[in-house]
């Protein structure tokens, strides 16, 4: 390993697996699926999802904050607060001009925009909320986070569809490498479990139709998979230059040591069946980290549970890394949180390194015979881990891969 490393000193998670890092790790490591019938989707062709359980924005953020924030912004603030606490950061040990924010999102405030469009059509322009744009625009979660924390470094929003979270962490690392920041609050947030998004994905036949048994619907790499289960949530990682982390005596959970990105240049929604773009991103991440294929022990796969993605991704992993690497997809538990998925899975990758444990792929009962990989299923696999890769691939053929290493 010879790539530029940044320290991960804090984590914050709010996902269908729970609110907080500890609850998330326990459920993911146990492999318990979270998909359930969703009353807000009643009457649609697909009426189930993976929701954040028991989330009370007023209790988490206060009534004043909660009412003026879209759900995806609420998630971002809750995750960021946990990550900052976890990192032991405060006004006393950071220079606000040297702290950046890079957040990814695929959809932004879609629930706000859908609700306000309905008001416009039903009641007229005078009834549209003055908060529509601050709540709906894609950049505003990052903006609100900077306001909340009072930080004044570079502030960016990344939108690369379902690769957004992974791309955001990669860009954040590059900001530190460039010298533009000492600390970057990086991650992604998404709250697109809405009737419009679900209806649109359903019309594309991208979603599982297993309404009779939602818990078994997200089944990456399984022969009976029939689509993904839509989810919501957020993950925030505190990235620091190793020099800054060392100077303040921070605990280091793990490191981000490589990043690769590419485009398929193939199709709007379907992955390149040969996996050429994904392969380029994988190889770029390895090169950036100074890794050989044999040094990679585990891949937290994109693994969406769609027929096309899982086969193409598996073939790419085998071609680049060989058959020795242990592969799992945590989307069997959480579903697919779209733009937030990559950040959530990067956090799980760091936790895998810390705990020496590879989470199982939930619902993987009968592996697809086309997939020739060492798939981790049924129970978690204890393993002394040094290097983990986290894959994310999005609509538009946008690919991103992170290389993570133990502290």
What's the topology here?
Blueprint: E1 6-15, E2 18-19, H1 21-30, E3 36-37, E4 48-49, H2 57-61, H3 63-67, H4 71-87, E5 99-104, H5 110-123, H6 132-136, H7 140-149, E6 155-158, H8 164-178, E7 183-190, H9 195-203, E8 233-241, H10 242-247, E9 254-263, H11 276-289, E10 298-300, H12 307-321, E11 326-328, H13 331-334, H14 341-355, E12 357-358, E13 374-375, E14 381-382, E15 387-394, E16 398-405
Helix pairs in contact: 4-7, 8-14, 11-12
In the CATH hierarchy, what is the architecture of the largest domain at level 2? 3-Layer(aba) Sandwich
Quick one: how many beta strands?
16
- How many DSSP H or I helices? 14
Structural class of the helices, strands and pairings? Answer: alpha/beta
Element order: H for helix, E for strand: EEHEEHHHEHHHEHEHEHEHEHEHHEEEEE
**Low-pLDDT residue intervals, each spanning 5 or more residues:** none
Oligomeric assembly: single chain
CATH superfamily of the largest domain: Thiolase/Chalcone synthase
**C-alpha Rg (nearest Å):** 20 Å
- CATH hierarchy class name of the largest domain: Alpha Beta
Q: How confident is the prediction overall: mean pLDDT?
A: 96
Spatial shape: globular
Q: Biggest sheet, in brief? A: 12 strands, mixed
Kindly, what is the distance between the CA atoms of the first and last residues, rounded to a whole number of angstroms? 13 Å
- Domain count: the total is 2
How much helix, percentage-wise, in residues? 25-40%
